[in-house]
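TOKENISED FOLD:
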Amino acid sequence: RSDYVLNRKLIEDALTAALSIGGDFAEIFVEDRTNNGIVMIGGKVESTMSGRDYGAGIRIFKGFNSVYAYTNKTDRDTLIETAKKAAKAVEGNIIDHTINLIKTDVNNINTIQIDPSSVEKTRKVQVMKKAYDTAFNYDDLITQVSVNYTDYIQNIMVANSQGLWKEDTRVRSRLGISSVASKNGEMQSGFYAPGASKGYEFFENLDIDYYAREASRIAVTMVNAKYSPSGRMPVIIDNGFGGVIFHEACGHGLEATAVAKGLSVFAGKVGQQIASPLVTAIDDGSIPNEWGSYSIDDEGTPSQRNVLIENGILKGYMIDMLNARRMNMDITGSSRRQSYRFSPTSRMSNTFIDNGSSKPEEIIASTEKGLYAKNMGGGSVNPATGEFNFAVMEGYIIEKGKIKEPVRGATLIGKGTEVLNKIDMVGNNLLQGQGMCGSVSGSIPANVGQPMIRVSELTVGGREGE
């Protein structure tokens, strides 16, 4: 392992110092991360970035309060000093702590075949060039293509005053392809960014041509499309990244970060019907090699499958250590952070609506009139109310059970709770999509997913008179 692994005596002493003036729990998180990023625009490498991020964070609890301090130096003096400074913020009755760390092995769920740091940059650029060429040559209307390559290796160590001491290595790889189509001075874009908790083998087994063509196909289809109608109508949201609506409008509201403070519409509703009986929603960080998966979370708890909603009934939340105290509930292996600079909190991993029993073609065939949102773009949500606004990257009109002409400029506007209750058909074609999720503990990799679903009525925003 790399040189960052601190010796046991130093970790124990730092934890003891953290508890020296009144805390009741202390934790140290050490991270050594190597990042690689390459950006290609117009078929040429625009920029490459590689860097190392190294540091340690010390967290102390006292009752329901917590304090966090971090440093990018881990020599003995700095670490003890950082621990003592943090301790001052939680002064109180001093309890004598004997800390005895016991190192336990981590059951690694993400097998890595090719260490990305062992692969020449020229090989990585070849992958990008292939994606670029396929996307750019798709159609004469494609005017620009950019490709992003990312891989990183993150070594972590987490230890706490209850004796926990674990180490883990996380490797992730991702390729982003963005195509722009232009026609009569108008531009439309298409985007795909597959990723996984895998090494360089991810790129070797990826159908690069498929994703490159899809990005360009969306852009070309949309630049030729007319504007979407607006109003209330049935909306069919396709599988995969369509799950971003559940993630944003509902998932954040099921994180203990919001629930413990009573800032979520779902607070205090365990056991209640909060969604259509067709909806079962799961957060599962333990699926091998998925983009949002991890063997242990950032507090050292193994990842697990958490059923959030079962047949419409709220079953539970995603809960970290501090909020478990506040809520008097069990932790769920959901504590995550962007880096050692952030204190961890409850976050999503791979969050998805589970398979239902309808076939996608049945869902479309049984819809008289509505909007088919084949690919979703970005959106925003107010977690306190669950009100959201999402762009449809690729949309179509449905008439008499058939997919008709493409439409652009559609937005889906609604409330998370409303959508959950109005899902009246759930497909059997579950697919996962990859994204980055931002919250108080920074930006982290997360999967969103779902099979095709139909919402019986949703507000669609568009541009009239086009």
